[in-house]
Write a structure and sequence with these properties.
384 residues, alpha/beta, TIM Barrel, 9-stranded parallel β-sheet, 11 helices, 21 strands, 21% strand, elongated, binds pyridoxal-5'-phosphate
């Protein structure tokens, strides 16, 4: 965006005043800070932000301002980013597979919390990671998995050890003088708290098998954002279920809790403004953004249907909804949104389609494939 005005009222004002040719990701810091407070006040433990979901500096800064004191980082670059933007915050290096060089960089950066899901990778940590950093203990958390329940897609297919194996690692971690903790990640966009319940119960069994009391239990990310009309994320009941299940399973031995939301924190603080390039023969809609850009996730986890359509003057289209096939701008046939989306019948070339809740896994996965992907950024007071 070339306009010098830095904070807009809302996405409609951006459309009215600038008629952007390229897609624009619109960020509402107040919405992000409010969501951060919902987590900080509601979650019964430490809230850390999964940086990978949206590593924009403005996001990190607003989270710090709101009071977030920990970050889940997965690479030396993310470790450095948080070291620079939030030097006092905790950094949990929770990518369970790391090269020797990555381990050395993280040790140099004084990382004090690690996760692991195999003996081969644990051996690497035992060989290179000290048990204390600046007089404080270093935590290693075996990551365990269960057959998936409730998530939109299955993270367990890549990471996580079975419960017995996790127990073996937990015991070794404790025997070698590290702080023994446990971690899991139930998958992403889990709208049902059941996803956490079974994991928490199994965490207790792992501690019993290992004969080790876990200092902390990290219940992962997976908290839902508002993707679908009428299905609002019910974070309060998820927080309550997590707290209740931990109390029930562990009683007086309850570990301290940590969560690492990505999407649940950042997604709803953004909207994506796209433009209609063509309505081909009056049917399929071609947008200037698609699955190689800000909508990368949709084929994997499903459409966002919180959509508004505006004419170029910034007035909402009011026509009755009609199902349309939506294509992105590239010449690749996979550049298509899943199924159909309902759009106003009177949608026309040059109109704008706004996707609400588009802040997660969008800015950061945008590519320049086929010469598209020049993404504008704008800040707004409000997304509505
Ligand atoms: C990606 C990831 C997260 C964040 O997941 P969301 O579904 O965005 O909340 C949290 N923890 C780990 C280990 C991850 O890999």
């Amino acid at each position: 965006m070339t306009n010098s005005k830095t904070v807009w009222q809302n996405p409609a004002e951006i459309i009215r005043e600038t008629q952007p040719e390229n897609p624009v990701l619109v960020f509402a810091p107040t919405v992000l800070q409010e969501r951060a407070r919902t987590f900080l006040e509601g979650f019964p433990g430490l809230v850390t932000y999964a940086v990978k979901s949206n590593p924009e500096e403005a996001v990190i800064q607003n989270l710090v301002t709101a009071g977030v004191q920990g970050f889940d980082v997965a690479s030396p670059a993310e470790i450095d980013l948080i070291g620079r933007l939030a030097p006092r915050a905790a950094r949990h290096y929770h990518n369970p597979v790391r090269s020797q060089s990555e381990i050395r960089q993280a040790v140099d950066a004084k990382i004090r919390a690690w996760s692991v899901d195999s003996m081969s990778e644990l051996e690497k940590l035992l060989a290179h990671v000290p048990t204390e950093v600046d007089g404080e203990g270093v935590e290693i958390s075996p990551r365990f998995k269960l057959p998936v329940l409730g998530a939109v897609y299955d993270f367990g297919s890549k990471f996580g050890a079975g419960p017995e194996y996790a127990a073996e690692m937990l015991k070794l971690v404790a025997d070698r003088g590290y702080i023994p903790s446990l971690t899991f990640h139930p998958g992403t966009q889990c709208t049902d708290p059941i996803a956490w319940e079974s994991y928490i119960k199994v965490a207790r069994e792992i501690c019993d098998m290992a004969g080790v009391r876990a200092r902390r239990l990290n219940v992962g990310g997976g908290f839902p954002s508002h993707r679908v009309v009428g299905v609002e994320p019910d974070l309060a009941s998820i927080f309550a279920e997590i707290g209740d299940t931990v109390a029930e399973a562990f009683g007086d031995d309850a570990p301290l809790l940590v969560c690492e939301p990505g999407r649940g924190l950042c997604a709803d603080a953004y909207a994506l403004i796209t433009r209609v390039k063509a309505v081909r023969d009056g049917a399929a809609v071609f947008l200037n953004d698609g699955v190689y850009g800000g909508l990368a996730e949709l084929p994997i986890i499903g459409n966002i249907d919180r959509i508004e359509v505006f004419d170029p003057q910034g007035n909402p289209r009011q026509g009755p909804p009609v199902g349309r096939v939506i294509f992105g701008p590239t010449c690749d046939s996979v550049d298509r949104l899943p199924g159909e989306l309902s759009l106003p019948e009177d949608i026309a070339e040059g109109d704008y389609v706004i996707f609400q809740g588009a802040g997660a896994y969008s800015v950061v996965t945008n590519t320049r494939f086929n010469g598209f992907g020049a993404l504008g950024h704008a800040t707004v007071m409000s997304l509505a």
